[in-house]
Design a protein that fits this description.
This protein has 286 residues and is α/β, with parallel strands linked by helices. 37% of the residues lie in helices and 18% in strands. The chain is built from 11 helices and 13 strands. Strand 2 (27-32), helix 2 and strand 3 (47-50) form a beta-alpha-beta unit. This is Nucleoside-diphosphate-sugar epimerase.
Length: 286
């Protein structure tokens, strides 16, 4: 039997999953908001669809797996707004539905630990939107929903090296600030493991084993590149965009025991050091 994944918002994380499925003979349909991205998706053996724009009902009819990466806004979840009734009517057609959320739904814990059972208390607008979107997807009867709460994502083409090389990186110092992170290849392997072991209603944190202050990551990237460590700038006096500043509104350490215990996952990159070393080796063709 050929499985079909319909991927809404087929971006960075979904594109890391696709090769794993295509290698097993899957059909992958991915949506994009930009017509300019069609050739890129086609080159990766993805069947592109415009969303919004194209009629996605035939793709829904063909799919037995759904992945939702498209983010919500003040108006709510865009996929549910456009296709919620159709998805609800077909809820039992799907073997697995994955929703990519964020650890931002937990809010600020002053550097303390959170897990999947921690009460949700988002402190940012985007975190509130994600909490509302999670609840909206959970409210669809019979949908085999799996929620994945992602920490800060890095990987090929997305990491600290570019800014460090350009000399524009800064080590923003906010005492007690820690973030959790996840390499995109580990996101892909967790999603694949969940597809192989469906557990409707399950919620998983996706992060590595080593929550760390952001300035430590920048410093390590500079050490790997053998360039001077960027200057330290106090958070209170740092010039930052509102978006960048909002990331510092929350500090927490995220536990990932469930993906190991229930999905049997062994992280390829259990800390940012191993992940950054692998990215640099990749950049250098090793």
């Amino acid at each position: 039997m050929t499985h079909t994944l319909l991927s809404f918002g087929h971006g960075y994380s979904a594109r890391a999953l696709s090769p794993l499925l295509l290698a097993e003979g899957w059909r992958v349909i991915g949506t994009t908001r930009s017509p300019d991205k069609r050739p890129q998706l086609e080159a990766e053996s993805i069947e592109p669809r415009l969303f919004p724009g194209d009629d996605l009902r035939p793709a829904l009819e063909a799919a037995d797996h759904l992945l939702i990466s498209a983010g919500p806004d003040a108006a709510g979840d865009p996929v549910l707004a456009a296709l919620g009734q159709e998805i609800a009517a077909r809820a039992r057609q799907f073997a697995w539905v994955g929703y990519l959320s964020t650890t931002g739904v937990y809010g600020d814990h002053g550097g303390g630990w959170v897990d999947e059972d921690t009460p949700l208390a988002p402190s940012t607008r985007r975190g509130v939107w994600r909490q509302q979107a999670e609840a909206a997807w959970q409210a669809i009867p019979g949908l085999p929903l799996h929620i994945f709460r992602l920490a800060g994502i890095y990987g090929p083409g997305r990491g600290p090296f570019a800014k460090v090389r350009q000399g524009s990186a800064r080590r923003i110092i906010k005492p007690g600030q820690v973030f959790s992170r996840i390499h995109v290849e580990d996101i892909a392997q967790v999603l694949r493991a969940s597809i192989a072991r469906p557990d409707p209603g399950a919620i998983y944190n996706l992060c590595d084993d080593d929550p760390a202050p952001p300035q430590d990551v920048i410093a390590y990237a500079a050490e790997l590149l053998d360039v001077p460590i960027p200057e330290a700038v106090p958070f209170d006096s740092a010039e930052m965009t509102p978006m960048a500043r909002s990331f510092y509104a929350e500090s927490k350490r995220v536990r990932n025991d469930r993906i190991k215990r229930e999905l049997g996952v062994t992280l390829k990159y259990p800390d940012y050091r191993s992940g950054l070393r692998a990215l640099l080796d990749r950049d250098r063709g090793k």
